[in-house]
Amino acid sequence: MPSSLPVPTPSSLTVSRRTVLAGAAAATAVTALPGFPGTAHAAAAAGPAAQAAAHAESAAGSGAASTPYRWRTAVIGGTGFITGVLFHPAVRGLAYARTDIGGAYRWDARAARWVPLTDHLGWDDWNLLGVEAIAVDRAHPDRLYLALGTYSQPWAGNGAVLRSEDRGATWSRTDLTVKLGANEDGRGTGERLLVDPRGSDTLWLGTRHDGLLKSTDRGATWAPATGFPAEPSATGQGVTFLAPAGRTVYAGWGDGGATLLRSTATGWEPVPGRPTGPAAKVPIRAAYDACARELYVTYADAPGPNGQTNGSVHKLHTVTGRWTEVTPVRPGGTTADGGADTFGYGGVAVDARRPGTVVVSTNNRWADVDTLFRSTDGGAHWTSLKDTAVFDVSETPFLKWGEEHPKFGWWIQALALDPFDAKHLLYGTGATLYATRDLTHWSPRVRGLEESAVRQLISPPVGTAHLISGLGDIGVMYHDSLTASPSDGMATRPVFGSATGLAQAALRPDHVVRTGWGDHGNGAYSTDGGRTWAPFSAQPPIAKDAPGPIALGADATALLWSFVHWDGTRHATHRSTDNGATWTEVSSFPKGATPVADPADPTLFYAYDTDTGNVYVSTDSGVSFTVGATGLPAGDTQFRIAAAPGRRGHLWLSAKWNGLYRSTDAGRTFTEVTSCWASYALGFGRAAEPGGYPAIYQTGATADVVGVYRSDDEGASWTRINDDAHQWGWTGEVITGDPRLYGRVYLGTNGRGVQYGDIA
Q1: Which of 119, 370, 473, 712 is catalytic?
Q2: Please, what are the domains in the chain?
Q3: In the list 79, 413, 491, 523, which could disulfide-bond 346, CB 3.0-4.6 Å?
Q4: pTM more than 0.85
Q5: Buried b vs exposed e over 287-296: b needs ≥16 C-beta within 10 Å?
């Protein structure tokens, strides 16, 4: 199960603490960095630069006002792939975590929660929310380094290194000339960034496609390392890890040939006697037992986290040069039910004070479920910690995934052992971070850490929950509280991976429907406002391979379900009037478009054909559609329509860098809203005055700043409600206000969960 969905190319971006202390720290960080405040629109996220500049120039001098907001994160707990955890070797209680799309965190031992360190990264820097590697300085505990860059494809920006002298409270930044890939294959390897054990001024950065980089001024400037013999590949893994062993640095190499290298007085050399063969094709991670002078290395036949079927564990005595295989269990056996027990090895950690005590993790072991193996005699004998594990996931019930008990985990490549406590062990999975203090009892260690990619949001006008969310990988959540993980976990019957659709009947809000990727059905309905669910008793055959967005008529009578395959292929939309028991094709509906229900008139449905720039309208509850307005912006699948609650026929079209358009005649005509030049996501909340027009919220731009805005006068003017400390990278998927609380807004991010704001 993937932990995050990637952001596609710029032409079709679709994806995929909040204590006072954290906010203040981030604000300080932003003011310390030239170019961060007032993030301008970027070609990478907002369209052609020349077009954006023209819009910004025309809007100059009419920029929006701003108002103070308090921003917090709706608590779910983890929800994404934890790719690295790192204890500081010399400071008790100091630790850091990295994620593939959700930034980096510092553990606050006093508050017992994670503090986000990269929320200040804005719209231009969406590609930097993926953390490729973390490094700390043993001799200078306040120094912290992050290597950032989510994708290495040509359409993604280059990576960057952030460096801090105060544990991430403030940052200095160096933009790299190479790309990194924190959400690509191999993201669980590492760490690829290292402070040289021979001197704090020297840093090493292993890249995927550009070899080894070196800095001699504490990360301010970088250049290719001289004497590094491995040849980089445009398609390979490059340097998979950098590990210190005494005064020597070892480098894992994932592109074949010399899979392990080490530094010398004059350069680098392959390590003699290194393991070879299919089970040792890619070195994943390494850890050095300084007491025994042994370097442990985990291997697999692929970089992971997916695709590994073989692997091994070896140790090198760094004084004698002798290699010993210490693999706990060799992959390839047969499980109890006759399946093939294939997997690789991932994380490795050693006890800093007890020689020979080492822990390793399996990875991609789906048949028999992944585990941790622990040895106290240098790998001669191993014990599976899964066999005695007792889990308490009451703080994050979704981890049961609809079952009676949670599984031990999957995608286990992040593994860390507290250097001050031999029984304090942490490991990351594709959905959370587990911790133990006694090697038996485990619970999530994720307070403050949220990594979900948010696709849909509903704020019901009545009921217990103020929020229902649809997420990538983790399905649908009913938020009966915003400060605790949903008590019922994720929506079940069926359990979804990624949610693709979520809709509520405006006139009968107890009726909600959802769609998504599931193994036992792809759609479900609720008649109690989203707390409990029943699967559609039938579904169109295409639903299994291409579940898409869904709309529910205002009176809950009619359903319209659109189908879009993961590769972009669009299929005919279907209609149901019996909660999904039977379906009929709607041939006049534009294939792949997102259906929208009018919130005041059950007979009205709308669709926007992004290929032609035409709006389609149904006046017979979705039975048939005819063309309404024409000539609107076309060519981008993320142009979308939002319907104003309580207003028949009031539609708003967010056309990204083409601006914002409005209709008051049910889609027959649209006029441009000239108060903003860009609109990426738009939603509505409680009006400022009783009986007034709903407050409008959007991610967009009124001048040169892409931000979060609110309008209380039907779009005539806008107030910016986020600030430079709270930007969260790319936020163009979904936003909605609260119909019961004026000023409350919920914002979906692509890796930092649901952010919600209130007027301060």
Answers
A1: 473
A2: 10-37+77-444 (2.130.10.10)
A3: 413
A4: yes
A5: bbbbebebbb
